[in-house]
Fold each of these.
Amino acid sequence: MPRLSVYDPFAEVFPELFRGLMQPATRSAPEAGGALEIRVDVKEADGSYQVQAEMPGVKKDDIHVQIDGNRVSISAEVKRESEQKEGERVLRSERYYGSVGRSFQLASEIDEGAASAKFEDGVLSLTLPKKQAPAAKRLQIS
């Protein structure tokens, strides 16, 4: 016996529209004790890419940048602990240990030898010069 079902054209639209509206808010903000997310801005200018990655609370020695052709990978080890002052009674203590990473591809290959990085005030700034394309060579026919 065949099954009958009612077609509802809005059944696929409305769940997507209201997804997450009634769900509880998650604590993903770094200052709220949640996991760190690397937020990245990439700009292209005069033969190079300028990348700025926000990494608040991360130490410079814990950051690793890897360049492979046109792929850039940024990773870091994150250790967060709440401070406890003497004479205080701890009601709740939150910690976060782990690694975080971000990888993306650029349109052109990067010259790894000329790339530079600077970390200041929780922002990693990368200057990634584009690799020069080899000049076309005319072949002599003999």
Amino acid sequence: MSGAASIGDAGWFRDPTLQKVLALLNDGDGEARVAGGAVRNALMGQQVGDIDIATTLRPDAVIERARKAGIKSVPTGIAHGTVTLVADKHPFEVTTLRVDIATDGRRADVAFGTDWTADAQRRDLTINGLYADAAGNVIDLVGGIADIETGTVRFIGDADTRIEEDFLRILRFFRFFAWYGKGRPDADGLRACARLKSGLSNLSAERVWSELKRLLAAPDPSRSMLWMRQSGVLSAVLEENDKWGIDGLFGLVRAEAALGWDPDPLLRLMAIVPPDRPRMAAMAKRLRLSKAESRRVVEWAGQESFSDDVAEAQLRRLLYEGDPQAIIDRIRLRLSVLRVKAETDDSVLVAAAAMSRLLTVATGWTKPVFPLKGKDLVSRGIVPGPAVGQVLADLEQAWLESDFGLTGEELLARLEPSGE
């Protein structure tokens, strides 16, 4: 990969829409290059998502060129030089080359320029500081290609300086290590993250949770989380883990690989925090989890545990009366723990097999519909009112005890002839 690296043969790079935008921005005195993650992923043979473009043109010139070409422009981050061009329904973030002239650890005041080296050196990590010109030739001004080859996640220049510009870069260091790193984290970067972790308290909860979630979505985030914990960074953003540990994450990742489960960032989060409903509610509020995420974590924490020898009929009743997702989450986490224990203790194999069976029941379960309604009782002579609700509740209990087997007619047959 070293030397004259190129991504010019990549299908996404040859896309006519991208080439049209690059040609537009490279015309005359302008110069534009694909930047950052798209170049990194292309070199690593990984899927490319968003395509960002860096340019020497100022935002107003980008907007004017787009207008003349009939391309929609959206000033998504105009103060920092970013304009989103929407060509053939495909969005491209176009950002003017810049340098940071003042930072406060969260945001920066910038000055626009035309110096590609200065623009590269203000970025966070070497593997994110790569460019590709319109022909696909990769331009490496910070040593990113060599770091890709060795699996090194390293800050550009002085690690402390990069972090103090934006403390979120601490979490990005661990996130990119989880996705792309090999061996041990870069020593200078790790020490800087440990020294400056108090700056994480200056960040918004939304930014912190976004990074944590993306880190937890990595194929195997356990090594990175271990280094986060040892450096004190994990406790700084996830105090609930402080006395809990991350052992559960290792077993869960192994279970995912062995059993074909999709990586689930929220389940992985549950593996490293205590199942304490009030604490999980407070955590969800602090990290600004979405309503769906908050509900899932809180319901998991509030779900009572059950033994591996619970009968399938009882499990179906629990699924009917409770939160199925919370029960599935409980089973998966318990199964992942049992699988690890079974490696050194054969007596646990029976429990693991039983929990695996329960998981099959739970994931294949569809909530049945109670076969009676109030009108069915009224038609049998029960006077409308509170009595209808009470009788329905009693009949539903009988239906549950039958493992949902009794039909509506069989339930109605249980009514007294008088209708009482």
